[in-house]
Specification:
Layout (H helix, E strand, L loop, with lengths): L7 E4 L6 H11 L3 E6 L2 H11 L6 E5 L5 H15 L4 E4 L14 H29 L2 E6 L3 H4 L6 H21 L4 E8 L5 H6 L2 H11 L8 H12 L10 E4 L7
Parallel strand pairs: 1-2, 1-4, 2-3, 4-5, 5-6, 6-7
Helix pairs in contact: 1-9, 3-4, 4-6
């Protein structure tokens, strides 16, 4: 499939945090970027910050727990720019509730955002890419899904473990149609949400005692890794999980 001069990416959870860094990386690389988030104002603010003229960005509301909204977003982007080449499943709900204190309602909420949402995204965009004969899906997993994490809740870690398995399933399903599906699994990153979720004393203990490199990860570098997996040249990489965790989990 011939790629357009300016390819298009759709990113979930792009209102702040890692999603904003990912959006910036794709924009800098020449992509048109559709930023989505449940908080429409947040995603509008991020789009305005990275593309003041609003010439190559699109801000859209998306509740990832609703499959119909993924379909609406895809239709809107196609109607605006004609096509999509890459999709990033980044939206997440990160809670640190102790395992024995997690309620049924909180468990269902976290699983819905962190596992059901990426599943719907892979379904909707995976089918579209398969029909087009080309596509790149990158799921943002987590160290927590590999080793239980350093501070994340049990529901969050369990969901991210599911994302890693789901990545392999969709990779196998879509490979013959020219679609790759990969995951990036970051450890603790230097983001406001991390510093808000983890008390300073505990975070310092994690940095100094658990992370071999003695530092939090750089979200801009994670974004570059996502971009790398979205390029046409990455066609021989699928079903993989790229670890960026400071040496916490080695394999």
């Amino acid at each position: 499939m011939t790629q357009p001069i300016e390819p298009v990416v759709v990113i979930t959870g792009a209102g702040k945090g890692l999603g904003g860094h990912i959006a910036q990386a794709f924009l800098n690389a020449g992509f048109r970027v559709a930023l989505t988030d449940r908080d429409l104002q947040a995603v509008k603010d991020t789009a305005q910050a990275i593309d003041p003229e609003a010439s190559r960005t699109l801000a859209l509301a998306l509740d990832v727990t609703e499959k119909a909204q993924f379909i609406e977003v895809l239709d809107c982007v196609k109607n605006t720019w004609g096509t999509v080449q890459a999709f990033v499943n980044n939206a997440a709900l990160t809670l640190t509730t102790a395992p024995m204190d997690i309620t049924a309602e909180e468990f269902d909420q976290v699983i819905a955002v962190n596992l059901r949402g990426p599943f719907f995204g892979c379904q909707v965009f995976g089918q579209y890419f398969a029909d087009q004969g080309y596509g790149r899906i990158i799921n943002i997993a987590s160290l927590a899904g590999q080793n239980g994490g350093t501070a994340a809740g049990a529901h969050y870690a369990s969901a991210k473990g599911g994302v890693l398995t789901m990545t392999k399933i969709f990779a196998r399903q879509l490979a013959e149609q020219g679609v790759t599906v990969n995951a990036v699994a970051p450890g603790p990153l230097d983001l406001p949400i991390v510093r808000e979720a983890v008390p300073e004393e505990k975070l310092n203990a994690i940095i100094n005692s658990i992370i071999p490199v003695k530092a939090l990860g750089n979200p801009a570098w994670v974004a570059q890794t996502v971009l790398h997996l979205a390029r046409p040249e990455s066609g021989f990489i699928t079903g993989a999980a790229w670890d960026i965790n400071g040496g916490i989990f080695m394999r």
